[in-house]
Amino acid sequence: MTHPVSNASDPTERSFAGRLLNWYDQHRRDLPWRARGDLLADPYHVWLSEIMLQQTTVVTVRAYFEKFTALWPTVKALAEAPLDDVLTAWAGLGYYARARNLHKCAQEIAFQRQGVFPSDEADLLTLPGVGAYTAAAIAAIAFDQRAVVVDGNVERVISRWYAVEEALPKAKPTIKTLTGRLTPQARNRDFPQAMMDLGSGICTPRSPSCLLCPVSEGCQAAAQGRATDFPKKAPKKPKPTRYGLAFWVENDRSEVLLTRRPDKGLLGGMMEVPGSDWGSDWPEVDPLLSGAILAGEVEHTFTHFHLRVRVVVPIASVDQATAALEAKKKGATWAPLEDLDRFALPTIMKKIARHALENK
After folding, report:
1. Cis peptide before 169 (omega within 30 of 0)
2. 147-161 pLDDT tens trace
C-alpha cells in the first residue's frame, strides 16, 4: 500500500507518516468506537468516546462507552434522556462537567442541527464541551478531514522525536506545530489514531519500546538515549488539603437523605450526602446537626486539592436534622439504602456512604 507523506522538507520527517501507518495497519487497537475496514466511524461514537477519554484511560472508558451506547444508541436518544439518568450512568468517571456538557451538546445536535454533527473543525468548536483537541479529533476520525490532533500520547511521541526541551504546558503550541509538520495530507482518520496507539503501546511513559518503534529512525530522544527524559514537565504545585463534614441522616424506612449539588461548580448537579462547605480547616457544626462522629475519615483527591471528610450522625430528630439540611441544600430526597446505585452519586459520595454503612 502506498502511504501519504507530510509536507516536511527533511526526508526522515517526510517518511514518518508512511512508516507509522504501515505499523498501524498491522497493530491497530480494536476499540468499540472505531470503524472497521474503510468505513468512517459514527460521529456520535467518536464524539462520545473523545469526551469520555478526557483525563480518563481507555481501559476505564470502554465499559462506560458500551453502557452509554446500549442505553442511548443515538445522539437523539441521549438528548431525550433525563439529565439525572446521564449523570447516574456517568458516576465514577469523574470531571462531571463533561457529563452535563455531553447532555447539552447532544440536545443541540439532536434538536438544533437535525441530528447531524458538523464536520468542520471550527464549527465543532462551537459545541458545548468541545475544545480544540476534541474538535480536531472528531473532524479527522469521523469525517476524514485533515486536522492536527494532539492528545497526551501524541505530546509524548512528538516531544521525544524532536527532543523538545521546553516544559509542558508551555510547550503545547510548539508540539502542535511539530505535529502539523508530520501530519500527512491523506489517511486523515488513521494518522491520529496511529499516533495514539504508538504512544499507548510503544512510546509509553516509563518503559518505551524503542527497539520496536516503527519511527525510531529520526527520533532524537532515542538517539540520545534520553527517551524517558521527555516530555519535560514543569514542577507540580503541592495540593492543598480541605476539610468537611457529611451528615448521615436515616429515617425509619431504611432510607438516607440525599441532596443535590448546585448545577455549576465541582460535581455540579450530582446527588450528595449533604454536608458542610469544604474549607481550609474543620468547620463548625450547626447545633441541630451535631452528633456522633463516626470512627475514621473519608479521603479523596481531586485535581487541585485533597479532601478529608468526617461523617456525622446528628443526635437531633430526623425531622429536625432534615429541616436544618433542607434549609441549606436543594433537591432533597430520601434514597433507599438498598438502591443507592440508581442515584447519581460521584465517587467521593459513594465513599462516604460506604464509610457510614460500615461504621454506624
Report:
1. yes
2. 999 999 999 999 999
